[in-house]
Every structure is written in C-alpha cells, then in structure tokens.
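Q: What would this chain look like folded?
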Amino acid sequence: MYRNQVLLRLSIPLVFMSPEQISIILASVGLCLGVLICFILLLANKSQVHANRLLTVTVFGLCLAMLQAILIYTGDLLKVPHFFRIPSPFFYLSLATGYLYVRSILNDETKYKKFDLVHFLPAFLHVVELMPFYLKSATEKRAVIDQMLHDPAQFIQLNEGLLPPYAHNLIRALIGLAYVIAMTRLMIRTAKEGNSTLINTATFNWLKWFIALMGAVVVSIMIILLMPEQGRFNRTLEVNVAAVICFVILNFYLFFRPQILYGIPRIRLETVSETNGQPENLSQPPFKEGKLHSSIGGEEEEEMDATCLDYLLAYKPVLEEYLNSKKPYLEQGYNVARLSYDTGIPQHHLSALLNKVYGVRFNDFINQYRIKYITEHFDKDGWRQMTLEGIASEVGFNSRTTFFNAIKKSTGLSPSEYISQIRKAKGDVE
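A: My prediction, written as structure tokens:
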C-alpha cells in the first residue's frame, strides 16, 4: 500500500507536465549522456579507432538534435540565433556514418573505401543549400526564429533552403530507411555465414540494437510526416519526441554495456585454434580450460555474465595472434600497459581476460610464453652453450631469480632440471 502511494506521488509531476516539458527533460538527459559517450569514444577507447570516429559523428549529430529541441521548447534559441539550422546537415551525416559504422564493424574495416565520400554528399549539398541562410545577420535569423516560436510546427518544415516545406525531412526519412535496410542486409549476410560464435557475441547483439533503434526513429518520423496532424500535438513535437526517446534508449544501452563503449572487439578476425599460441610446458597445462574462473588467491569466482564472457572471448584470438606473430615477451620489462597498447585491447579488459579466461596473472601469462619459447628454440645454434643467465636474458627474464621462480612455478622443476628434461626430449643426452 505504502509503495503504491510513493509511486503515485512520484507520477503526479509527470501527469501535470506538458509534452514539451517532458521532451526538454528527456532531451537534456540524452544530451548529457551523448556528450559523455563522445568523449569516451574519442579519448578512452583506443580500439577500432575508425569505427569509433564514425559512431562519434553519429552520436554527435544526435546530440545537436537534442540541443536544438531544448533550445526550441525553452525559447532560448533566440539567444543563439546562429545555431539555428546548424544541426540540419548533421542529420544527413548521422545516417551515413551510422551505416558506415555498422559496415566497418561487420567487415573489420580500418579506413574508408574509395567511394565512401558519396555517403557524405547529401550533407554537403544541404550545407550549400542553406548557405544563404547561414550568412544572414543575427537580427534576420531572430525574426525567422521568433515567427517559428509562435508556431513550432514550422520548425521541421525547413523552408529556408531551396526545397519546399517538409521535403528535407521526408528525404532524410527515405535515405534513413534505405540505410537501415542496407545495414539489416549486412547483418543477415553475416549471420548466414554460419558462424554461431560470431552472431552470439556482445558486438553482434549491440549492432542489432543500434540498427533497431535507428530504424525505429526513421519509421516513426516517416509515419509522423505522412499522417495528418491530430489533436494538440504538432509534427515538430512528435518528431522530436520519437528521436529523443530512441536516443536516450541508445545511450542507456551503451552505459549498461560499458565493455562495448570502452573497447568493442574486432568481430571478423580469424579464430586461432585452441592449441595454437598457448604455451605448453612439460608437466601441466598452464591455462585452465572449461569453466571460467580466477585462480588468484586460489578461490573460484562466480561465473561471468554471458554477455561479458562472450565479449572477453572475442579478445582471445586477437591476443594470441599478436603474441605468436610478434613475440613481444622476448623484450625485458614488457608489461601489461605495453601489451594493451600494442593489441588495442583496453587494459582493464585485458586484465579481465587474463584473470577470468586464462586464470593467471599477467606476469605468469607472459612467463609461460617465454618458457614455451625456450622449449621450441633450445636446439638453435648457440643455445646449448648458453648459461642459465644467458637463456633467461634471451627470452626476456630480468634476472636469474625471476627465471628460476617462473620455471619452478610452471613445471615444478628447477631451471637445470628443466633444461636437462628438454635435452632428453630432443634426444640430446649428455
């Protein structure tokens, strides 16, 4: 009973709010979250740089739409007349970059294709069309804005350019629908490749949400523009509310999936075989398979959320392919920050991958690769005559003590016993 009373009291302010006031609140939330997302994508996320920039442009364009909605319904647009119609070309731009973002993730693209500039042509032409209005004085722009504030439905007519009223919004809706169809076809084509691991990843699920929300905005706007005005709502308000709601949902989805926001993994990298790239020592497997847990402190942790698990596993082939091909562990002092930078995997994701998937600390993980390298390369010229200190230095260990501890922890043998066992395994018994 008490809970119902509390919910009733909380809902009372919303009941007495006008649609414009609700739109202002939602747009303000969307604007704040959107700006934060742009900063994270540009500054904190160092993986998939090309895709991140495309998503940043998309989100930034939507942020401008949120800001314009706030300025319209608060009447503050008169204070910043030169901002009027600035967001309009970005609506075209956001559609294009949204499509290119999805394509870049699905196809693992790191740069633009030859004819991708065509996607930016509508935005450029719209800027050219609006240039006479942009060059007007603040007084002239205030006169136009003041007239529209008395009839907010005129804001989406966009009759300051060459095309007739509502033309641009219908064109944008049609272009947006074409892009949504194109993105959907890309997703279907990827799903038909038959890679169940790929289509069940957090990355693929995020793209489905992204396309669905863009589709919802486009379809809603198209329906609103084609239907006659009804009741007290006008087309401008309806279009703004539809865009604001979808944008807020998109932002909250990203914040509830920080692993996507802070570093989306490559979705199309060839999977490395389970045995390839994993060091094998002579006594026991260094990496635990099966149920994921952390061996830190010797206590198993609870199983991870399925989405987070899929996300971490997507990094696994990226990490192993880099270690196998570049062998950075042979460098003394190589640390987790360097590995994060070299692979593009955010450091906190890399630490989680090592702890949760492999069940080891970074130093133990790297030392296993060093030990494997000794096993595989011991018959190289000069290695048989090396001292233990020389071998340790050759594979990246900083000292004899570190080398001794790593061998003992991994194999249960002393370095001399370990080397002797390698000699026997290679038929070199002295």
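The chain is about 65% helix and 0% strand.
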